TrEMBL record:
<dbReference type="Pfam" id="PF02350">
    <property type="entry name" value="Epimerase_2"/>
</dbReference>
<dbReference type="InterPro" id="IPR003331">
    <property type="entry name" value="UDP_GlcNAc_Epimerase_2_dom"/>
</dbReference>
<feature type="domain" description="UDP-N-acetylglucosamine 2-epimerase">
    <location>
        <begin position="1"/>
        <end position="158"/>
    </location>
</feature>
<dbReference type="GO" id="GO:0008761">
    <property type="term" value="F:UDP-N-acetylglucosamine 2-epimerase activity"/>
</dbReference>
<keyword id="KW-0413">Isomerase</keyword>
<protein>
    <recommendedName>
        <fullName>UDP-N-acetylglucosamine 2-epimerase (non-hydrolyzing)</fullName>
        <ecNumber>5.1.3.14</ecNumber>
    </recommendedName>
</protein>
<dbReference type="InterPro" id="IPR029767">
    <property type="entry name" value="WecB-like"/>
</dbReference>
<comment type="similarity">
    <text>Belongs to the UDP-N-acetylglucosamine 2-epimerase family.</text>
</comment>
Length: 158
């Protein structure tokens, strides 16, 4: 309903969630062009990550413009038959958000406490990372932080 009411020039969807797929499908049914942010990421195993990989691929089929985070993601799209003129390498939105925060001198007591350190940004949100895989990641990060005193970890929970 909102697409028919607002009549946007394009619907932008981000990522590989069911919400992303649903937004793209609604735009497709309304014959509204679709732009996909974080396009071209692939495992080529429709069950891993599940259901994100199949969401990525189906949104990729419907999308008109593909905003790929990396060169490799863009190459995946080319291999799938997407026209290069419809692909833009835009970078990673999580990194962009971190850089924006740094550039705009965002401050918090935690950042001030570690202001002279180099930050490691860790994001993890897939169900298959829960449990042992994440414990292994945390152990590896802990080892790095213990070994290199100039490091601090930023782990945005989402």
């Amino acid at each position: 309903d909102i697409i028919q009411k607002e009549v946007p020039d394009m619907v932008l969807v981000h990522g590989d969630t069911v919400t992303t797929f649903s937004g793209a499908l609604a735009a497709f049914y309304s014959q509204t062009p679709i732009g996909h942010v974080e396009a071209g990421l692939r495992s080529y195993n429709k069950y891993s990550p599940y259901p994100e990989e199949i969401n990525r691929q189906m949104v990729g089929v419907m999308a008109d413009l593909h905003f790929a985070p990396t060169y490799n993601a863009a190459q995946n799209l080319v291999k799938e038959g997407k026209l290069a003129k419809h692909i833009a390498i835009t970078g990673n939105t999580a990194i962009d958000a971190m850089n924006y925060t740094i550039d705009h001198q965002y401050s918090s007591s935690i950042i001030q406490k570690h202001k002279n350190k180099n930050f490691i940004l860790l994001t993890a949100h897939r169900r298959e990372n829960i449990g042992k895989p994440m414990i292994n990641v945390f152990k590896a990060i802990r080892k790095l932080i213990d070994e290199y005193q100039d490091l601090a970890l930023v782990y945005p929970m989402h």
